[in-house]
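Example 237.
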Amino acid sequence: MSRVLPLISTIDLWRTYQLGSEEINALRGVNMTVMPGQFIAVVGRSGSGKTTLLNILAGLDKPTSGQVLFENRDIAAMNEHDLTEIRRHKIGFVFQSFGLLPLLSAFENVELPLRIAGVRTREREERTRDALEIVGLWGRAKHRPYELSGGEQQRVAIARAVVNNPPLILADEPTGELDSTNARAIFGLFKEMVLKQGISVLSATHDSTLLAMADEVKEIRDGHLNDATDLGQRYRD
Ligand SMILES: Nc1ncnc2c1ncn2[C@@H]1O[C@H](COP(=O)(O)OP(=O)(O)OP(=O)(O)O)[C@@H](O)[C@H]1O
Ligand SMILES: [Mg+2]
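Predicted structure in complex with magnesium ion:
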C-alpha cells in the first residue's frame, strides 16, 4: 500500500512586512497540510493574513522564514524552471475579482493557460470545452466578460484555473463579489471537483454560510492558523 503524501504543506511559516519603521507579522509560524482530495476553507477577519498565506502557497510571494513543501519538495530550493512548472501545471489560482481579460471571449480566456503551456490546437479546443462544460458555461463560450454575470465570470475564472488539470486550486475570496446564490454555486462547484476529480481546494472566505461545504475549516488569528471545523459544523443541516 502506498502512503499518500501531502500535496502542499508549510513548516513554521512567517511573513513579516516592513512598513516604515513598523514591522507587521502577518503570519507567525503557520503549520498546515493539504492532502489530495481535501477541500479546506480559511476564515479570518480582514487583515488576518489570508491573502498573504495564499500568495505564499502559490509561490507569488516568499515567506520571511519557514518552508513551503510542494509534494514534499521545498519550493525555496527549486530553480526558476521547476517553479514555473508548478505555477503552470500544479496550481490553479482564483481571485476575488475574477481577473479575466476583457477583450477575450470566455473560450479564449480559458484557453490561454494552454496556449502558454504550448498545448496543440486540437487538444486545446477539447480541454477548453471540457473545462467550460464542468462549470456549465459551454453555451456562453463566445461571450466576452462584460456580457456575463458576476457568477458566470467567476465560473469562467474557475474553468481557466482547472483547464491544466492542476491537483490544487487556491482561491482568495472567490465569492466576495457574488450574491449568496452564486456564492453557493461556486463552493458547490469546488466540492464537486474535489469529489469527482480528486483535486484539492484551499479557499479563503468571509461567508460563514459556505463553511459547511468544506471538509475542514481553518481560522487565521494573530498570525496563527487553527482548526475551526466546528464553525462549519454549526451551519450543517
Ligand atoms: N505589501 C504589504 N505591506 C505591508 N503590510 C501588508 C502588505 N500586505 C499586507 N499587509 C498587512 O498584512 C496583514 C495581512 O494582510 P492580508 O492581505 O494577508 O489579510 P487578509 O486576511 O487577506 O485580509 P482581507 O480579508 O481584508 O482580504 C494586514 O495587517 C495588512 O495590512
Ligand atoms: Mg485578502
